[in-house]
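[step 3/7] fold_predict: job queued, chain A
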Amino acid sequence: MDYWIATEYNGDVPGGFSCLEIPASKWVVFEVQGPIPEAIVSTWKHIFSEWFPSHRYEHAEIASLEEYMGAYPNPSCKIWVPMR
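[step 4/7] structure written:
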C-alpha cells in the first residue's frame, strides 16, 4: 500500500518529489466522525465491511483519498473512494 501526502500541483515536478495523476472518477465521500486516527480506521472498516456489500457500486481500482482540514489533534477528515 502506498500512502502519499499530497496537494494539487501544476508544473514541472521538483527534484526529490513524485507526481501521481488521479484520473477522473465518480466518488463517494465519507465524513469521518470521532478522534483521529481511530475514527479513520473505523470508517475504512465500515466502507468495506458494510457500505460496499449493501450498494451496487464497485471500487474503481484507482487511489482513494483521505482529506484532512484543520490542525491536529482535531482535524476534520473525509475519505474519498472512487466508484464505478
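[step 5/7] annotate
The longest helix spans residues 38-51.
The chain has a mean pLDDT of 91.
exit 0
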